[in-house]
Design a protein that fits this description.
The protein has two helices and six strands, in the order βββαβαββ. By secondary structure, the chain is α+β, with helices and mostly antiparallel strands. The protein has a six-stranded mixed sheet. It starts with a strand and ends with a strand.
Length: 124
C-alpha cells in the first residue's frame, strides 16, 4: 500500500496542501485565487472563474485534468448565486458531468469570498 502524497500550495504561508493523492485519487480545494496569487473578491462570476481556473491548474500540476473530476463540493455564501456559478461551471465542465453538491454556508475564510470548491479527481 502506498502512502498519501501531498503537493504544497504555491502560497508559502498556506496551511493547506494544494493537492493530495492516494491510490490514484486526487483531492484539491480551491478558492478564487488569481494566477499571481492574489484573491479575486469581485462578483460571483469573477470569483467562480478564478476558483475553477485555480482548480484546473492544480489538477494539471498533479497530472490530472478537469475531465477526470469525479466529484465537486461547491460552497457558496449566497445559495441564490448558484445559477451564476453554474453558468461559469458549464464553461469548465461538460457531459458526463461530475457528481456534485452545492452547499450554502454563512461565511468562508476571507471576508468577501463567495465561493470555494473541493474536488476529487482520478489521477493520470
Amino acid at each position: 500500500m502506498t502512502d498519501p502524497v501531498f503537493l504544497p500550495d504555491p502560497d508559502a504561508d498556506s496551511i493547506s496542501s494544494d493537492v493530495a493523492s492516494f491510490n490514484g485519487i486526487l483531492v484539491s480545494t480551491q478558492i478564487p485565487t488569481r494566477a499571481d496569487g492574489s484573491l479575486e473578491l469581485g462578483d460571483i462570476t469573477a470569483q467562480s472563474e478564478c476558483t475553477l481556473q485555480a482548480l484546473k491548474v492544480a489538477l494539471e500540476r498533479a497530472g490530472s485534468s478537469l475531465e477526470r473530476v469525479l466529484h465537486l463540493t461547491i460552497y457558496l455564501t449566497d445559495i441564490n448565486e448558484r445559477a451564476a456559478f453554474n453558468a461559469v461551471y458549464q464553461r469548465f465542465f461538460a457531459k458526463p458531468w461530475p457528481v456534485r453538491a452545492a452547499v450554502g454556508v454563512a461565511a468562508l475564510a476571507v471576508p468577501g469570498m463567495r465561493v470555494e470548491v473541493t474536488a476529487m479527481a482520478a489521477q493520470g
